[in-house]
Structures are given as structure tokens and as C-alpha cells.
Amino acid sequence: MSYSEDHIVLAAEYVLGTLNAEERAQVDTMMSVDPDYRVLVESWQHRLGELNAMVGSVEPPAELWEKIRSAVGLSSLQLPLVLPELPPPPPPAPVVVAPDAEAESAKIIAFSGRAKRWRNLATAAAALAASLFALVVLQVARPDWLPNALRGKPRIETVQVQVPAPLPAQFVAVLQKGSDAPAFILTVDVATKAFTVRKVSAEGEQGKSYELWIVSDKLQTPRSLGLIGAANFTTRPALAAYDADTINQATYAVTVEPEGGSPTSLPTGPVVFSGKLVETVPTAPSTR
User: Fold this and answer.
1) Percent helix, strand and coil across the chain, each rounded to 5?
2) In 21-177, where do the E strands start and end?
3) Domain presence at residue 133
4) Are residues 200 and 288 located together in one domain of the fold?
5) What is the pLDDT of residue 28?
6) Residue 70: CB partners within 8 Å, gap ≥ 6?
7) pTM score, whole prediction
8) CA 244 to chain centre
9) Regarding beta strands 271-276 and 223-227, do their DSSP bridges make them parallel or antiparallel, or are they unpaired?
10) Four-CA torsion 216, 218, 220, 225, nearest 10 degrees
11) How far is Cα 43 from Cα 14, in angstroms, rounded to an integer?
12) Same domain for 128 and 219?
């Protein structure tokens, strides 16, 4: 499906993030009901995403690491990590146990032994966690300080960039009278030979209709391309019967006709607006 220049620009600005909330909601709705328009938005995402892939990495200056070490208090030579030795526990004080409390004393002694084992286990676990944390920090910050066996393996990622299909050429004609403000803008897709007319400043007349005509030296008489609707956009495939050279070189005129269009196959009302096509978006060559 072909889209007008406004639709294409709207898709590009959606990817760039320059639309307001109402315009973004409009694009979201169009993508949800029109799969071809979603493909158009995704093609812009791929095209603009290539700009990010083209940005190379920046090597930090050599003195940056020394500044970081000084800031965290590591400017001097660091000694190997040595865990402090735990002081031996003090000898237990003698306990005088009455004969009738021997059973209770045995329970206390057993509980004291279990508590000591748990303390030793917790201390060992804390030391192991500290060692692992130091190893992880060194692997990330200074892997060259570690032996080869402890250095992390480099990760290699392969990125595949899909190049979107080239966009077809786009031609636009500004239909106006003299130096007045544009009344209509005509956009033609050469690939599909479909055209879209956008109403700009033209005002309709009661009981009258605007009709679009193609005028060319290759045609004996002007040919009607249909009525221009009252909506902001009118899209038709009415140029399918003409070759590309005729479409590009012709003059496009708008006449005021009776309501419903010319009663004959020729214009009956005055030509109020006219213009010729100019190329605005050239055919992009495929890079595949």
C-alpha cells in the first residue's frame, strides 16, 4: 500500500520521538489496523537504528584509571588480600556444679559447643564471600592483575543489521492560483501510480464540486481523475492507465463543476487551481 508524504513523515517522527501524545496515539492506531503501515514504521526504525550502530566506541584516556584509583583511595600499591587471624577463644571459667544440677550443666556445655561451631562456620562463610567479592571486582575492573585461569572469558556478540527495502520515488504538485496560498497538495507514488490530494486552504462552494484533471500534450483532451472529496485527504489509483512519463510531465488542474462532477467527459467550469509535479523523494538504491 502507498502512503502520502505526510504519512511517511509522521512515521519517521514517530521513530524519532518528536510527536506529541495525540499524534503518537494516531500512529499507534494506524499501526494496529494497518499492517503495511506498521512495516513502514519498522523500516524507519531500522534505517535510523543504523545511525546508532555507526557510532564507534570511545577509548578513555590513559590517566582516567589513575584518577579513579586516587578517588577511591587506591593510589598506592595494593598488597594481596590477607584475612586477619581470629584470636583464640578465652579458656572457659571453671564452673562448680551442684550434684543435683549435673544434667542441666551437661545441656549448657552441649549448647556452648554448638554455638562455637556455628560462629566458626559463619566466620568462614564471611571470609569466603569477601574473597569472592574481591575476585569479581578484579575480573571487572583489573583483569590483568589476576592469573590467566581466573580471568573472565571475553564475550563476542554478532549483530545482524537488516537493510530495509528502498522507498519508491515521491512526486508532489502544489495546486494553487497565481501566488495565492496553496489550495491543494497532490502527492503521486510513481511505483503504484496512486495519488493523494490534501486539502490545504480551498473552501467548498454550496452546490459545487472540485474535480481534478490531468492535462498533457500526449492526450487529446483533459482527462478526469475524479472528484476531490470534502475530507482532508483523498486517495485514488486513477493514474494506473497512464505511463510514468505522461504522469511526470503533465499539468494537473482543478475545476469547479456542478455537484457530482462534470456532466460531460470534459471540464465545464473554470480552472481555479493548477500545478506540475516535482520530485521530492528520489528512489533510494538498494544496498543489499
Assistant:
1) 35, 20, 45
2) 170-175
3) yes
4) yes
5) 93
6) none
7) 0.41
8) 35
9) unpaired
10) -50
11) 12
12) no
